[in-house]
Amino acid sequence: xxxxxxxxxxxxxxxxxRRSFMKAAGALLAGSALAACMPxxxxxxxxxxxxxxxxxxxxxxxxxxxxxxxxxxxxHYNNYYEVTDSKEGVASLAQKLSTxxxxxxxxxxxxxxxTYAVDDLNSRFTPEERIYRLRCVEGWSMVIPWQxxxxxxxxxxxxxxxxxxxxxxTTLYDPKQLRGQADHFYSWPYIEGLRLDEAExxxxxxxxxxxxxxxPKQDGAPIRLVVPWKYGFKSIKAITRIxxxxxxxxxxxxxxxxxxxxxYSNVNPEVxxxxxxxxxxxxxxxxxxxxxxxxxxxxxxxxxxxAGMDLVANY
Length: 315
Ligand code: MTE
Prior knowledge:
- With about 325 residues, the chain is of the alpha+beta class.
- It is about 15% helix and about 20% strand.
- The chain has eight helices and twelve strands.
- Strand 3 and strand 4 form a beta hairpin.
- It is globular and about 50 Å long.
- Bound molecules: ligand MTE.
- Ligand MTE binds next to loops.
């Protein structure tokens, strides 16, 4: 694998002076350890050797003042089940995936269906920087400086029909390249979904870069969803298809264990996972745990999407 050193990052001034900076802005399968972000075979503990953070975060912070997780950590602690269920193994194995050329089909209940080359998306929708917290359902988190564009802009161009109620996202299906897809334990391809109004929220982005460089393969190259107020598994990688649909899509992890991974999966310290609390989390690179924030700290922005909704029933 080609390791990307901080010195190779696009100089901050080149990339970041363009930024629009977000300030305020099934059953548990018998005996298995099945969990989104938690492989069937145990992975080494978080914070293990090799994950020591470097100071190379360019001084970036999120809007709450949390320092961005160093690039090296973001590149070596990944969940990508199509590649492997070992977090530390993803970085090198993912490099085998061919991501150029790459097309994203926007289809379904839209007036303007279209297939975009990823390069066209990048030139059509000016990238913005979004420094977001990523909270995995497993109880760890990072702060990641993404560059991308609001999904809403692409949806606006597609013109959803009034019958469109949800957006369904699909990852590349290619078991020859993505060896994990040969594992029949899971139902491939990886699918995720959002309610249309969630998808149209300005915080939901399609990311094509992080730390000012094209999205690394282990992080979902060439294009992935980032929905910062939801558990990390909703942020689907390597998207090839975005489909507007009438029925609520069945997500990959909901299909695997519906009692553990609901459609909404909003970060919520008050709604425990059936097998563990969600009240606190470990920021990768830090010792100890910190309290988990409702909607991952984005409640002011997204709370109204769920006004009057029972957040326990709709986990
Ligand atoms: N997308 C696909 N296609 N396949 C995956 O296995 N894992 C999810 C999500 N998106 C996953 C995926 C999970 S469980 C998490 S926590 C995040 O990606 C991790 O993103 P990262 O590896 O960039 O930190």
